[in-house]
Design goal:
Rossmann fold, Mannitol-specific EII, Chain A, single chain, five-stranded parallel sheet, seven-stranded mixed sheet, globular, 20 helices
Length: 564
């Protein structure tokens, strides 16, 4: 792309208008399909343009990798010195987040969003550093290669034969305010590589023979255009659709404690939900034979890692207790208006499991799932093969920019701030038990709505929790129930400064969303759960809620998050 083209200038002007009017940090991502396509170059060019327009810009971090053109282009931009620390006796330099926050520029240029920080850093990943900077009201322009998206891990491994170790959740890209595809033909990229403009000359031939083979580059380029088209379509539908117009088309993935390649199931479900622009749920049905006191430590660890990945990919994670797995899955699907169920292909079973209630889970699910699409995914290990043919993607300009004009919520669109009042927000400065939290939230919600029977509401919530605790999610819990005769949806929020006592999760539960919805309107429950889930995954909102000292401050943080 010509850096001096009118289209390039227009994109810079769009971001310039945005940062001048924004009260909180905005994120712009230069997305590419491979190292060397020009992401860092375009980021630095925009930094110079913004500086020329009077914007306070700093270089938070740029990786030159020995490239002279990048080093020259970085000249003239203020550099925030890196933080030095030792790891196993070796000095390492990382981005100094505290220094950037103290400097407080309007815009920070930060390279390589998917980078993994050295152990001992404040955050494990650079994208988390960026989220902290955005939360401080500083705008960020960054770079990313498409293969670092978590949901593409299996596809990239099969197509290119590379295990990408540095990955970030898809939600990070989905929440970006502007995405620009930096494109370059594969021939031009290989020519740049051969000229020594990407790697040192001694590495060129090895790179051409391996990662930079034409088939690999074309595959990654195709993936990038698909991802961009998916983001454009998702944002278009978000603008056009109302949250209240929920259709029974949510996505559900069924997990097993011993299922092979559960991560592949989750990544597939994540991408399907993204294409459909729907909520999605990761559900684990715990049978009596899989109680925590029965299964071995290794299985418990694998299950915990699977559920953690599900949350990172954006799923609402639930555990249900039940003897009949198919019946439990279908009851969940009915309650949460699921239209797609994804399940792994069963492997060989020992003789004793070929009899009894759960002997053919997939077959019984297909027979009984009326009106629901059941997708059986082969999760067995495969050799890298390349991408299978797909439906052609509509043509997308190679350097397409995504920046929808922000719009206020449409008339009738649900927001959390419409459902929560200061009277329905409780802050606990000391550890509190699950029972006490639920009781106080229910009583608070009932009192604010002038309902006379909080005991009945609490009974329904506890009954739902007994089926499968929603306090299983790391960092947040979503206790909810559908109540017969309830005139309107009630939402109460609990902020627990020191977690929920008696609940064992890797990350303390600091947010508890209580959702009570009318039984006659199941679509409302689905919509509000989606809102609460997105809120619980927003790092900036979580930090604002942590710093809130009153219910009014907490509600103001929610409103600020919802504000375009």
């Amino acid at each position: 792309m010509d850096p001096k083209s009118p289209l390039s200038d227009e994109r810079a002007n769009a971001f310039l208008r945005m940062i001048r009017h924004a009260q909180r940090g905005r994120l712009k991502v230069y997305l590419g399909y491979c190292p060397g396509v020009g992401k860092t170059y375009q980021m630095l060019l925009e930094g110079h343009r913004l500086k020329k327009d009077g914007i306070d810009v700093v270089l938070g971090l740029v990786e030159t990798h020995g490239r002279e053109d990048i080093a020259r282009l970085a000249e003239g931009l203020e550099v925030v010195p890196r933080r030095r620390q030792e790891y196993r006796g070796v000095p390492v330099e990382e981005m100094d987040v505290e220094a950037i926050l103290a400097r407080k520029p309007q815009v920070a240029l930060i390279d390589e969003l998917a980078h993994t920080n050295v152990p001992g850093s404040p955050n494990p990943k650079r994208y988390q550093d960026v989220q902290d900077i955005l939360a401080a009201g500083i705008h960020v322009i960054t770079t990313l290669n498409v293969q670092h998206l978590e949901s593409l891990y299996n596809l990239v491994e099969q197509a290119v034969g590379v295990k990408v170790r540095e990955r970030l959740p898809d939600s990070v890209l989905a929440e970006a305010d502007q995405i620009v595809d930096v494109d370059l033909s594969t021939e031009d990229l290989q020519k740049r590589l051969a000229e020594g403009k990407i790697y040192p000359r001694e590495r060129v031939q090895t790179a051409l023979n391996n990662f930079f083979r034409t088939a690999n580059l074309e595959t990654l380029r195709e993936l990038t255009l698909r991802e961009l088209a998916s983001q454009i379509d998702s944002r278009r539908r978000e603008t056009e659709e109302k949250e209240s117009d929920v259709t029974p088309d949510q996505v559900m993935v069924c997990l097993s404690s011993r299922g092979p390649n559960s991560d592949k199931l989750l990544r597939y479900a994540s991408r399907l939900a993204g294409k459909l622009n729907r909520n999605w749920y990761a559900v684990y049905v715990q049978t009596p034979s899989e109680e925590a006191t029965v299964i071995d430590v290794r299985t418990q660890r694998l299950l915990s890692e699977t559920l953690t990945l599900a949350k990172q990919l954006g799923a609402l994670v639930f555990t249900y207790k039940g003897e009949d797995i198919v019946d439990t899955i279908l009851r969940f699907a009915k309650e949460y208006r699921v239209g797609h169920i994804i399940i792994g292909r069963p492997g060989p079973k020992p003789f004793y499991k070929k009899f009894g209630k759960n002997r053919d889970i997939v077959g019984d699910l297909i027979k009984k799932a009326q009106g629901i699409t059941v997708i059986v995914l082969d999760t067995r290990e495969e050799q890298p093969q390349g991408i299978s043919p797909r439906k052609p993607v509509p043509a997308t300009p190679p350097a397409a920019s995504i920046f929808p004009e922000p719009k206020p919520p449409a008339a009738g669109q649900l927001t959390l701030s419409q459902l929560i009042t200061p009277q329905r927000i409780i802050l606990w400065d000391q550890p509190a038990g699950q029972g006490d939290i639920l009781q106080q939230l229910v009583e608070t919600a009932a009192k604010s709505a002038r309902l006379d029977d909080p005991e009945t509401l609490l009974t329904e919530v506890l009954k739902r929790e007994a089926q499968g605790s929603t306090f299983f999610n790391e960092g947040a819990a979503f206790p909810h129930a559908r109540i017969d005769g309830l005139p309107a949806t009630l939402v109460a929020l609990g902020l627990t400064r020191m977690g929920v006592s008696g609940i064992l999760t890797e990350k303390p539960i600091e947010l508890v969303f209580l959702i009570l919805s009318p039984a006659q309107a199941p679509e409302i429950q689905v919509a509000v759960l989606g809102l609460a889930s997105r809120a619980a995954q927003n790092r900036q909102l979580l930090q604002d809620l942590k710093s809130a000292r009153t219910a009014e401050e907490a509600l103001a943080a929610i409103r600020n998050w919802e504000r375009p």
